Amino acid sequence: MKVTLKHHEELGPLVRATRKCQGMRQDDTAEGIGVSENFLAKVERGGGTVQWQKLFQVLTELGLRVEIDVPDAAVALLQEQDRMRGAKR
Q1: Which residues, including other chains, have CB under 8 Å from residue 7's CB and lie 6 or more apart?
Q2: Which residues form the HTH cro/C1-type domain (predicted)?
């Protein structure tokens, strides 16, 4: 099921629910992923100061993917910027 997140605080409960559905304890999960239990707890609470690299490490290890619905106009702009960079080379 795809879930659209509107705020960073909404990600934490999804991480926690996924971990619990997999029957994993917080301390064991953190150790297995290579992050501190304190960090994983911050992720699960939706802490705003979470380090992105570690956050994606946690998400990947739990089998969660982040999908972003990008407006067509933004995709077109990025493609145009890529073409412009390619033309300058």
Answers
A1: none
A2: 14-69
Number of domains in the chain: 1
What count of Cα atoms within 13 Å lies in the side-chain half-sphere of residue 49?
2
With contact defined as beta carbons under 8 Å apart, do 27 and 37 qualify? yes
CATH number for the domain that contains residue 71: 1.10.260.40
Place of tokens 């380090």: 51
- Tens digits of per-residue pLDDT, 15-74? 999 999 999 999 999 999 999 999 999 999 887 787 888 888 999 999 998 887 777 887
pLDDT band, very low/low/confident/very high, at 11 (cuts 50, 70, 90): confident
Q: Are 10 and 46 in contact (CB under 8 A)?
A: yes
